[in-house]
Every structure is written in structure tokens, then in C-alpha cells.
Design brief:
By secondary structure, this protein is an all-beta fold. It has 1 helix and 27 strands. Strands 1, 2, 4, 5, 6, 7, 10, 15, 16, 17 and 19 form an 11-stranded mixed beta sheet that branches. The chain is globular and about 70 Å long. Residues 5-28 have low confidence and may be disordered.
């Protein structure tokens, strides 16, 4: 979405006229959840500041947009299990409209993965919701040389159509893009129901899906300063925003917004990031011990190889409950599993993972997420440590139980 200048904007507008690719089933590769936001905060609360930063800026963003992005709760908040980005007609800091943009930079950054967002789109002329990614470190230079991945963009006056695009190549006006569109069946609208938008990004291939239907695959791109697969071989971060296009914004048709349609809301049910499960081997747990909070006599059950025994909190899930595993010596590892099977509701509603060499100094979390099933698999960059701490960060009316805890390299 960034800097769609001049002729590039006109070309991108043309994407919306392309037919959808033939429907194909999504691959069945074993993607493992590594980061997520389910937006289950209290109604009216701010987005999670450990996962998102809010932009506070206006000025058109190179696209002659009309909104000012604010950090106010008027424009972004959690409500009934969704994030709401609200666009409004109001004068604010020299702009005639307000909205919000959230970015995960330095809080959620990935090189490759599956990125899945379930959302319901706003509607009305001038509305421009987007889910997209930019390079965290921009090692190949300014836009578009370090690349851009547009997971989903929509024109608010074309509610049966979304597009997915990559931007790359030389500096504007010699930049390049490639993309495609997805069309809903006749009579359906992306404003009427939630749909799941996903991108799978691997070395040498980027794939786009709507509701697990593959509609675009790209394998060719370039940047002038490095060989293929640059620029799509570096860490990228996520962005969620609702822009408002005006008379000089080609993507939305170079027309004035329909003020009668405002306010409009962009609903995001969840954002989930996955990595592919690596080929790995479980570490030998001989000599390992565990301590827990709440303290009780059963933490060894999560290390005994018996899924019929378990450690459990014995109380409802609350933030701050934890277990610490001492692996008896320093180990190198890149994956762990928290097996809560046996009761479908005993898995951590939220979790953070920490590592330590001495059991005292933990540093920042190496992984975090929201449990969505009784078997939780957590992948991360390889770490070397003796102690692992898993902290419950969610809330639930069930006990938190762990039947087996395994670590892999």
C-alpha cells in the first residue's frame, strides 16, 4: 500500500479488473502457530501494545490519502473479540477524516511463514482497507527496493473484490509490481461477513488465499542491489489500516469519498503467524525437573512420558501462572510442545516463553501466542539455555493442565 505513486497507482487500479484465478485447495503443509492476537481484550480497550504500535500521522502517505491516523480509542479499540478500526468524517490535525493504522514492527517480525487474518471489511466510496507487510530493516534501500507484500486491499465501492500484490524493483517511477484479484460469487460482499485472508511466503514463492482458496502464486521478482530471492528474503512486519482515498487517489478511483457512508468500521477477528514445522527430535528428558505456580506436588507429571498423568493449576486460569523446567544442563533447541490433551478446555488461553541460563535472569520472551487447541506447538529461532519458563497470560474458567512438555532440536 505504501507510495503507490502516479502510473503505478493506475496500474494497480487495473488489478481490480482482473478475474480471480481458478480455485484450488490450500496446501496441507504443517504450519505451526508462533504469534497471534485474538483481540479478546475488554470492550473499548486499546490494542495490545506488546504486539502493535499505533501510527499518529497524516499527510497523504504518497497516495493523496485524506485521513489522519490517530492513536485515540475513537479510531481503534477491541470489541466483542475483534479489533475495530473506525474511519470518521471529522477535522483533525489538518485532515478531513480520521482512522487508524497498526504496525507490528519490532514486536512481530518474520522471515517466511503463513500469515492469516480473519476480517470483515468496511464499505463505501473512498474506503481502502489493507493488510500488508514491509521490510523491517530495509536492507536493500527505500521503497520498493526492499519489497512490499500486500496481503489484502479493497476498494469500498467494489465489495465483491480484493487484490493481493507484491512491489519490488527499482526506484519510482521505474518500480514494478505483480498481483491478482479474487472475486466473490455474484451477490456476495466482503462487508456482509468475515472472511479469512492468508499469505504463505516461502523462499522463492508467495501464495495468496481467501477462505483457503488459492488465487495467486508469485515466484518472480528482483531488487537492483542483491540476487534473487531478494528482496523477499528478509524479516517483514505486519500492518493493518483503513485509508480514505480522494480525488487524487488512483486506487480508489480518483473520486471524493461518500461522506454519507461514514463512519465505517474495519473488523479484524484475529491475526495469526505460523512457521513450518521443522524436522526435529525430542530431547532426552532424563534428569529434568519442574517447578510451578501455583505450587503443588505434581509438576513431574509433565515430564514422565505418561499422558494419563498431569500437572494442573487446580484453580481457574489467570495471568501469571507458570511452570519452569530445568533441563539439568545447557541445551540447544528450537521448538517445544505443551500437551494439554485429555480435556479440550485445559490449554493455555495465552502464553509467553522465556529461557535462562541460571534460572534467575530471563530477559524478554522468545515466543508468545494464544492457545487454540489442546496441543500447543511453539517454534522459534534456535536458543541455548538450561531453563525454560512458560507463563499463562490468558484468563479462563478452566484449570490449566499440562500432561507432557517436550523440547526439540
Amino acid at each position: 500500500m505504501k507510495k503507490h505513486f502516479s502510473s503505478t497507482l493506475l496500474l494497480l487500479l487495473g488489478l481490480s479488473l482482473l478475474p480471480a484465478y481458478s480455485a484450488l485447495s490450500a496446501p496441507t503443509d504443517n504450519w505451526q502457530l508462533v504469534w497471534s492476537d485474538e483481540f479478546n481484550g475488554t470492550n473499548g480497550s486499546a490494542p495490545d501494545s506488546t504486539k502493535w504500535s499505533l501510527i499518529d500521522q497524516g499527510g497523504g502517505f504518497g497516495n493523496s490519502e485524506l485521513e489522519y491516523y490517530t492513536s485515540r480509542r475513537d479510531n481503534s479499540y477491541q470489541e466483542n473479540g475483534s479489533l475495530v478500526i473506525a474511519a470518521k468524517k471529522e477535522n483533525y490535525s489538518g485532515q478531513s477524516y480520521t482512522s487508524a493504522k497498526l504496525i507490528s514492527k519490532n514486536k512481530g517480525d518474520w522471515k517466511y511463514g503463513r500469515f492469516e487474518i480473519r476480517a470483515k471489511l468496511p464499505q463505501g466510496r473512498g474506503m481502502w482497507p489493507a493488510i500488508w507487510m514491509l521490510s523491517t530493516d530495509a536492507v536493500y534501500g527505500g521503497w520498493p527496493k526492499s519489497g512490499e507484500i500486500d496481503m489484502m486491499e479493497n476498494r469500498g465501492d467494489q465489495m465483491d473484490k480484493v487484490s493481493g500484490t507484491i512491489h519490488y524493483g527499482n526506484d519510482w517511477p521505474n518500480n514494478t509490481y505483480s498481483g491478482a484479484s479474487y472475486l466473490l460469487p455474484s451477490g456476495q460482499s466482503f462487508a456482509d461477513a468475515y472472511h479469512t485472508f492468508a499469505v504463505e511466503w516461502e523462499e522463492g514463492a508467495i501464495r495468496w488465499y481467501v477462505d483457503d482458496v488459492l488465487y495467486s502464486t508469485k515466484t518472480n521478482w528482483f531488487t537492483p542491489s542483491a540476487p534473487y530471492p531478494a528482496p523477499f528474503d528478509q524479516k517483514f512486519y505486519l500492518m493493518l489500516n483503513l485509508a480514505i482515498g480522494g480525488p487524487n487517489t488512483p486506487f480508489t478511483g480518483k473520486t471524493s469519498p461518500d461522506d454519507s457512508a461514514l463512519p465505517q468500521k474495519f473488523y479484524i477477528d484475529y491475526v495469526r503467524a505460523y512457521t513450518k514445522a521443522a524436522s526435529s527430535t525430542a530431547l532426552d528428558r532424563t534428569g529434568w525437573t519442574a517447578t510451578t505456580s501455583p505450587v503443588n506436588s505434581t509438576p513431574a507429571n509433565m515430564l514422565d512420558g505418561n499422558t494419563n498423568s498431569r500437572w494442573t493449576t487446580g484453580t481457574d486460569m489467570v495471568p501469571g501462572q507458570y511452570f519452569i523446567v530445568d533441563m539439568n544442563a545447557s541445551k540447544t533447541f528450537n521448538k517445544l510442545t505443551i500437551d494439554c490433551t485429555g480435556n479440550n478446555n485445559d490449554y493455555a488461553r495465552g502464553y509467553q516463553v522465556f529461557v535462562s541460563s541460571d534460572g534467575t535472569n530471563w530477559g524478554s520472551a522468545i515466543a508468545s501466542g494464544t492457545g487454540t487447541a489442546p496441543l500447543i506447538t511453539v517454534n522459534f529461532a534456535s536458543k541455548t539455555a538450561r531453563y525454560i519458563k512458560v507463563v499463562q497470560t490468558g484468563t479462563g474458567t478452566n484449570w490449566w493442565s499440562v500432561r507432557e512438555f517436550n523440547v526439540y532440536n
